[in-house]
Amino acid sequence: MRKLVWDASFKRAFRRLARHDPTLLDHIFEALSALAADPFDPALKTHKLRGQLAGLWACWVEYDCRIIFTFDADPRGDEDVIALLDIGSHDEVY
C-alpha cells in the first residue's frame, strides 16, 4: 500500500468539490483507497498524461471526475508515495 500525499492544490480542489457535490465524497474516498492499494487497478482507468501534463498520471473517480497525481520517492523510506495534485471534472483538470 502506497502513502497518499495531498498537495495544497489538491486540498483546495477537494474542498471546492465537497461544497458543490457532497454526494461525490464517497466515490472520491473509494477511489483514493483503491489508488493507495493498487494504482493500476482496472476500475481506476489509470493512464499517463501527455502534452503540458506530461509526466503526470490521471485516474477515474466517476464519469466526470478525475484525480491527477504523480509517483514520487519517499525521502524517509524505500516505498514510493503518490502525490495528489488536482481533482475535478475532465475539463477542469486537463
Structure description:
- The chain has 94 residues and is α+β, with helices and mostly antiparallel strands.
- The protein has a single domain (3-93), classed as YaeB-like fold (2-Layer Sandwich).
- The protein is built from three helices and five strands.
- Strand 2 (47-48) and strand 3 (57-62) form a beta hairpin.
- The longest helix has 13 residues, at 8-20.
Give the key terms.
single chain, 94 residues, alpha+beta, YaeB-like fold, five-stranded mixed sheet, 5 strands, 32% strand, globular
Care to give the gist of this entry?
By secondary structure, this protein is an alpha+beta fold. It has three helices and five strands.
CATH first level? Alpha Beta
Q: With helices defined by DSSP (H or I, 4 residues minimum), what is the helix count? A: 3
Class by alpha and beta content? alpha+beta
- Report the helical percentage: 25-40%
N-end to C-end Cα span: 27 Å
As laid out across the biggest beta sheet, the strand order is 1-5-4-3-2
Biggest pleated-sheet summary: 5 strands, mixed
Report the radius of gyration as a whole number of Å: 13 Å
Mean pLDDT over the residues: 93
